[in-house]
Amino acid sequence: MPGYRELFERNYGIFSEAEQDRIRRACVLIIGCGGIGGTVAVILARSGVGRFILVEFDSYDYSNMNRQIGCFEDTLGRNKAEVIGEQILRINPEASVEVHAKMLAPNELAELIPKVDVVFPAADDFALSIVVFRDAQRLGKPALLIVPSGTWSHVSIIHPDSPPVEDIEGVPKLSTYEELHALFTTPRYKFGTYFYVPIADWRIDYYRSFIFDGAPPAQLCPAVWLASSLGSFEILKVVSGKWKPVASPRFWSITRKRISIKRIHGPHLETLFVWQRKIMWRMFQTWLSLPLELGQKVWWQIFYGWYKYREGKKPT
Amino acid sequence: MSDYALRFQRNLGVLSISEQERLRDTNVLIIGDGGTGETIAIILARCGMERFTIAGEGVYAASDMNRQACCFLDTIGEKKVSVIKDTILKINPNARVSTCKHLPRGEELDTLIKECAIVIPAVDDLSYSILCFRSARKQTRPAVLCIPSGSLGWVCAFSHKTPTIEDVFGIPSLDYEGLRRIMHSREYRCAQYNFITSGDWRVSWFWEYFSGKRDLALLCPVSWIASSLAAMEVLKIATGKWRPTYAPKCWYIRKGTVAQSHFSLFIKYHRKLGWAIFGNGIGRHLHRLALWFWRRFFLYLKYSQDKAVPDKRSSIPPTPLDLKGDQPDV
Fold it and tell me: Which of B68, B150, B163, B231 is the most buried (most CB within 10 A)?
């Protein structure tokens, strides 16, 4: 059986003994072992991280095949966290992996946070992730944010003293999980993601079913794996201390045309989206909601018509 | 719903049905079974590509664990191409994967490239990759470059209309033997000092690499960032939906950042000039003098690396034990 030194030999070309030792002793909590969660877990295991706590209630299904690292013919129907845990042990036999193969409530998750060095909330349910980010900040642990969608994604480290996730993604400041969950399921707020069509390359009909029929976000393997690799690199930066991580208020903004580090409220298009989401939500709470709703309907007709026309016109 | 549609339905949020079909029918040739070729193959299989040709002669070793997607404790010692083939078939049982258990040369390489639509030369041996790029160019096949090293990396696509790989890296046009001689010469390895300055290699490792005792230093996240970017370029070419990043533009990974950039003109002319001066008979003697400079230069790099303040940014407290000289369980 090869030892740690032998398995991670080539890392020592970049990391010093002390840095690799810190990586080895690091403990990472990953909530949700799907597209990004599973990939980050495996990359970290391959980089030599020694301790993992994995939380996931879901099991592999055919629709996961297009991007999830543990999804194969022979793992279909099995719990994702268990499969990822096995993969980690097949990479590094001395790793310690704690698997929670069930849904945990926000307060149960908060109990796990003090045990770890870095938290990665990667649940499909963004409301749950936001609650975990808040707990991590409260308990003084760095956390990793990855939001992938189509060919676009955001990656950033949220330190305890840095601006919260809500400022990066433009989420109104609601206090409880239930309120947040309700927010993310209403079409009113979902329309705030309209840039998925021009920037993340979503097809307009799919976007329509995402808004009205609750279809899951569109995902493409290279985009998901790119965001995950960049995210796990950020965790390695935090853990090893070799490089300065890209932490909030800065964040990685990835599209298929460019990858750049942006700043919250900086002079770029995403600031517009963030403020739009925040201000519109406030306005929807007042008497303006009725005319706004009407305006949104008209806007959607025009938006849909325009992108439908453009998609039809595109040469193949 | 058919089996294929069931597996790759989530792609249809971005790709149209005709684009997905085109992807399915595209034949990719992956030459080399190192960290990048293998990861690219898995990503492309997960995108729904069905026709692969993979060439390579490697066998999994323990030191591959830190970055290769199909290397596990139970596959150490097995032939890489067979393991990659099995993994692709576990993702999509209808995929047609043909393998070539050696690195093809001459005529054979030309025929393989002629049969495929996109070439990905992913061999550690750069001089062999250059042969693949030349052959792809001759037969007007697009080729995707993907080179990681330490925290440094380049990714871009070449077609028969773009500058060649020799142009962008400033490599002289020689045959395979000539290229190989150069890349193993001390003169050439000195010019790879950017592995330390941009790739964050440790100088002690570079010294051993310099004397041929060590391989390239590689890191999983960087290698996978480069692979995902390269897979995206393949997707762009195969679907025809977006414009690929053709040379001299490239994705450039450096010191923990990624950006779309251009190949460095400085490095190119620096290498060209160096070759013009030191490449011939008299130049080799001249290089003995230059080595004096390099030795000082690397000593300086080592000095500045050792002097760098141990970071207080890490979230993990330093070990109470002094690790110097301690070799954790070899």
Answer: B231
Amino acid identity at B279: G
ipTM of the complex, rounded to two decimals: 0.94
Strand segments, DSSP code E, in chain A are 27-31, 51-55, 96-100, 118-121, 143-149, 152-158, 250-254, 259-263
Q: For the purposes of burial, counting CB atoms within 10 Å of the CB of A232, is it exposed (0-12), middle (13-18) or buried (19 or more)?
A: buried
Q: Is B247 exposed, middle or buried (0-12, 13-18, 19+ CB in 10 A)?
A: buried
Report the alpha-carbon distance of residue A274 to residue A278 in Å, rounded.
6
Say which of B6, B259, B310 has its CB closest to residue A259.
B259
Report the alpha-carbon distance of residue A164 to residue B192 in Å, rounded: 41
Could you tell me the pTM of the whole model?
0.93
| pLDDT score for B267 | 82
CATH number at residue B133: 3.40.50.720
Q: What is the residue range of B253's domain?
A: 7-172+216-264
Query: What's the CA gap between A151 and A199, in Å, rounded?
Result: 8
Nearest Cα to Cα of residue A217 among A38, A67, A73, A77 = A67
Mean pLDDT of chain B: 86
DSSP state of A193: G
The C-alpha atoms of residue B95 and residue B89 are separated, in whole angstroms, by: 6
Number of domains in chain B: 1
**CB < 8 Å from B in window 164-183 of A:** none
- Report pLDDT for A309: 92
Residues of chain B predicted below pLDDT 50: 320-330
A225-229 average pLDDT score: 95
Domain ranges, ordered by start, for chain A? 4-313
* Cβ of residue A308 closer than 8 Å to a chain B Cβ: no
Mean pLDDT of A241-265: 92
Indicate whether B299 belongs to any domain. Answer: no
Q: Is residue B298 part of a domain?
A: no
Which residues in chain B have their CB less than 8 angstroms from residue A22's CB?
314, 316, 318-319
Q: Cβ of A202 under 8 Å from any chain B Cβ?
A: yes
Nearest chain A alpha carbon to B3:
A62
Give the mean pLDDT of chain A. 91
Decide if B314 is inside a domain.
no
pLDDT digits (tens, 9 = 90+) for A99-122: 999 989 999 999 999 999 999 999
Looking at residue B328, its pLDDT comes to 45
Query: For domain A4-313, which CATH number applies: 3.90.1150.10, 3.40.50.720, 2.40.50.90, 3.20.20.80?
Result: 3.40.50.720
Note whether B164 and B133 are within 8 A (CB): yes
